[in-house]
Amino acid sequence: MIIAAGGGRRIGGPEALLYRGDQLLVERALRIVGETGCDPVVVVLGAAADQVRDTADLTGATVVVNRAWGTGLGSSLRVGLDALKDSDAEAVVVFPVNMPGITADALRRVTALPYPEVLVCATYAGTRSYPMVFGRRHWAAIATLANADGGARPYLLAHTGEVIDISCDGVAEGGQVNTPESVAAWGLAVPVQRTPA
User: Fold this and answer.
1) Cα maximum dimension of the chain
2) How far apart (Å, rounded) are the C-alpha atoms in residues 49 and 16?
3) What is the pTM of this model?
4) pLDDT, tens digit, 9 for 90 and up, residues 116-134
């Protein structure tokens, strides 16, 4: 599940439309997920959803829209999990589009245990972050407890003894793009309208 719903108020536009070179962050995330063989792939859009659809190449993904994207990450998790409920997936990996340091190697590490009861978090310097993997047994409760900015954090805290932490140091970076300074640090450009290929 790629979370690409944020409005990016502090960075000048939707995170999904940030780009480096000729590739949008949402396209980069979709490519990385594809490299790991995860299937099905759900992309959760929100802010400027029509513009993202018109601009980005989202081939191969099921695209859903979180109309309540302004309420935070929790609502996007709920929309994405709902889109997967009729699939036969035993677990879901969650990849926020505003983390351009996540790599295919990091996804492979955290998805090595795709079981219905698994809870996995990538760690960077010992701190839990994304990508995360939620086994199907946890989906309903995560959707119920997910909150605005913390997403699944309340559920993970309540089940901390079950969470498997997997270090992604050395294969990925855990920083988020959410300020003008972080946009510059990652060498990204602010969202623009781009004609689809």
Assistant:
1) 48
2) 9
3) 0.92
4) 999 999 999 999 999 999 9
